[in-house]
Amino acid sequence: MALYVYKFGGTSVGTVERIKAVAEKVKKAHELGDQIVVVVSAMSGETNRLIGLAKQIQAQPTERELDVLISTGEQVTVALLSMALHELGCDACSYTGGQVKILTDSSHTKARIRKIDDARIRASLKQGKVVVVAGFQGVDEDDNITTLGRGGSDTTAVALAAALKADECHIYTDVDGVYTTDPRVEPKARRLDRITFEEMLEMASLGSKVLQIRSVEFAGKYNVALRVLSSFTEGCGTLITYEELSMESALISGIAFNRDEAKLTITGVPDLPGVAFKILGPIADANIEVDMIIQNIADDATTDFTFTVHRNDFQRAKAILTQTCAELGARAVTDDDRIVKVSIVGVGMRSHAGIASTMFKTLAAEGINIRMIATSEIKISVVVDEKYLELAVRALHAAFNLDKAE
Ligand code: ASP
Ligand code: MG
After folding, report:
1. What's the pTM?
2. Ion ligand 2 contact residues with beta carbon within 5 A
């Protein structure tokens, strides 16, 4: 007998009809003799609606009360799904995070799970029940309700799978898996059968919004086999797992991109110890996250320093940098907020040379100018002008044969 944790996102439980369809699916799996724990999100749009209500009362809602409010979305769906299962003659029992005892720290609206008590769930499973658990929520040491951050139901599911030592954690969503790139940009994008945790983290943090990043980190840490699949169509989805020999054949697993970048350069900075800190210190103090950083080699006694930030932080970062420029006696600040980052991701890179040169050759053939380059062990990122995004993604997709079956 296997134990599975299934998680259904907001669109999958967005209407009563869809909740009934989820119940059918769960019932079928349960009838095969497996133990099933289901984690659900709130109905789609519900969390936003609740936050909207709070904001009509308080511009900055009190975080403790906000958690009490927004955790109700998931309480609705666990109850409705359990009822739908009962209606199908399938025994089921719903629990809120607090009832299970998903213990978190006290950071309201972004709490982290500390411990999960599996006793109640185990007891219900033993009685042959499907257990339905509210995603996204827990309680702290003092029994205050907490939530795990937007998209947190993924993390609830993975954490439960780890605590229960489940055979697999299935994330049912509105896409049928993880793709080589965004199919809206490259229609030839292909669903991957497998991807490693590391690759998924790079893809997710680069804007492939299939899973909450934290849930992937969690799954990697506790070695939870994670599968992303569609709740609307049949199929085996994408398995996120540790590296295996058979995966070595693919050099590149996917192409991620990020449209939200902006670039700032400070030129003619004195080339002295402490300068990088003087430039980036005030940016960090303003809570602005910096992504890529490049410092040129100095030919006279000065150097140029370039970094990228999220477009939302662009104006603030520019104001700070302009002030730093005056303080350091640097030459000028230049900027560009019409840039994007395109990255190729793959564990195959570790053991193969020439991947970067293939990437650069491909972009050159399309006449695309590369403005910045950064690399990590399993990723190469370039910054290019915004207008080249689609062209760059498609050209790289073809160059690395991503449209061909594995
Ligand atoms: N309902 C929460 C949200 O919308 C949690 C989740 O869906 O995973 O962010
Ligand atoms: Mg989600």
Report:
1. 0.84
2. 9, 151
